[in-house]
What does this fold into?
Amino acid sequence: MAMVQPKSVKYRLWLTHLGLLAAIAVILFPLLMVVSISFREGNFATGSLFPDSPTLEHWSLALGIPYTQADGQVVNPPFPVLTWLWNSVKIAVISSALILLLSTTSAYAFARLHFTGKGTILKGMLIFQMFPPVLSLVAIYALFDQLGKHIGWLGVNSHGAVIVASLGGMALHIWTIKGYFESIDRSLEEAAIVDGATTWQAFFHILLPMSVPILAVVFILAFITTITEYPMASVLLMDVDKLTLSVGAQQYLYDQNYLWGDFAAAAVLSGLPITLVFLYCQKWIVGGLTAGGVKG
Amino acid sequence: MSESLRYPSFRKMLHWSLWLLFNALALYLVVALYAQRQIAFALLGLVVTGIASYVFISRRTYAHRYIYPSLAGMLTFVIFPLLYTVGIGFTNYSGTNLLSFEQAQRYLLGQTYVAGDRYPFSLHDSEDGPRLRIDLGAQGVLVSPPLEGEPVQGEPLGLQPESEVSLGEPLPLRDVIKRRAELERWVLRSPEGELLRLYGLREMAEARPQYRLLGNGDLLDNRSGERLVANHEIGFYVDAEGHKVAPGFTVYTGLSNFARVLADPDIRQNFLQIFAWTVAFAGLTVLFTLVVGLTLASLLQWELVRGKPFYRLMLILPYAVPAFISILVFKGLFNQNFGEINLLLNGLFGIRPDWFSDPTLARCMILIVNTWLGYPYILLLCMGLLQAIPRDLYEASALDGAGPLDNLLRITLPLLIKPLAPLLIASFAFNFNNFVLITLLTRGGPDIIGATTPAGTTDLLVSYTYRIAFQDSGQNFALAAAIATLIFILVGAMAWLNLKLTKVKV
It folds into this structure.
């Protein structure tokens, strides 16, 4: 507690609370609105925050169940949202697992082993990570087009391509894990190596079990990065059934086919799990951010 | 003794056979790519698999085995595409010049024109697929092989006598109509060597190759006797009058794309306008998110404020919602006719701004949305950094009678700016290339009036590049690659500056 307090402190405290609440109101407005819209009738309905006659029409369509309107007309789901969500989750889980596997082993070598070119490689990785993949999409497309001619599951319009392409972005994860490894005392591993263990055994049986928290954080960070990835997936995937959520979701809001209500339900349905995971893990994620992560 | 010997030798054998298998597969891929004249990709495969093969066999590179897989990922999916893109910038690779010279030549030599005799045919279904029965007059009645799969360019199918195959009843004309496009792709060869193609719905006609390759590499048009010369400056075969004959092929054009960006008044004006907006957008985003984030962080920092966990959770919500969803939510909310924001503004002030068709308003909207999306990151960073500032500094300033503004300008900001600077540069670089925001929110629109390339008033350089490559009818990959190369230089400078400021310790 500070020893020196200005006189008007109570008044200013109220003002602070008021300011924070006002900020929260502005921030929550779009999120609450979209929840509200998902329960409104039709795709052009306007109204208050609490819909006058709530309906589950859009939610039913988002879940892939045809909806029968009051006049008996059956509306079919416009897009396979659940398939998109499944595609996204599948791609994100496999990518994140691979990213975690490869960046952990790399981070171990950077943190513990001595080899030529270590500093150069680390810095180089950090610099190249800043080049946005959007700019080399033509090359990435051409690369997978060629690969697909020889290895079918890696071609254009396959999930394999999107998964493999995500393996280019590991530098920040390597830095995060490396920083954690360096904070762990290495005497235990050295003792094991003196007793005849190989470096691999020391890494696998001693260091790895102690690093589970950071591995969880990196997995979640990689999961969120891949599930929200848009540019590469938008070029590499074409069939409606193969799209990921981030590519598919925009199809709701084309001018010619404006499905605002259906979009709202699909957005809440698919956005909520990701948001909850993030909020649940935010304590750990924030620590990793200051290490140099960039979003927003 | 023998047991303990066998075990390691078995492991060693497994090791070696895996290594050999890997090399065999790698070699197959590289040779296959090379055979298809994909030199750049063959080279990439050779480098990536060659290093892998060495790293996993040499004792001296034991440590590199740990890092190589991620390094290979970066090499293949970041560095190679980068170099390849720069390379494309020096060519004329585009929608009209997609093929290589050999492919374009082969395509032209495979072209045919209809001439000579016509023969009636009928379409039959057989056990192996659809076949054509052709009455060739003096040469007899012959039957085609089953027409399934893809025809091979330049390899016509031979015919066999009718007696050798059992055909069903001829299919009715409506089936021929239905399959016409498919049937038109096939070229058949009669016993006398004539090339036959579908001509209308009832007849096959002799098709002659339209071009003949001359000794000096020129093509001779068999029909008109005209000579086509390959022009390697523009990437087209041209006739005597200089008319281009499609398809074009990819050639090296030197700096012409860069010259276009910097010298063509039309493109240069668009480029500079978009560049200015990109810098303004990234700069203002950093400024706004910093102001909002720092203000909220300072408020939350005050120890008398209660309920901090709740405020914190609410304030970082925009960060937790996936960006592609919140951007689309804003796109709907800002909709001019049914968007909630215009309903609200209409109710309060009686105005309905055109958020998507007025350039200035569209830019304002983008900045509002991006501030909403981006401030939580700064907030989180500032909250961490503010905690590190010693409290007694503020106490001393309070004793001297300083107000909150003095505290901010004389204590907080100077202490904050140093650790924050590299993160702000990273944020600037990220927003400089914030493709997803622009693409999902405005798609770059409203468009710049009279632009020759697809350019919008809210386009960033990245989305402009993307549109030139993928959205334009011309698909001008080379021009896009040239602009991308210019952006690479800018991003490289920012990355270098960032690295200098952070003084990364390895």
Notes: Chain B has four domains: 3-88, 96-111+211-254, 113-209, 264-501. Chain B touches chain A through 106 residues (CB under 8 Å).
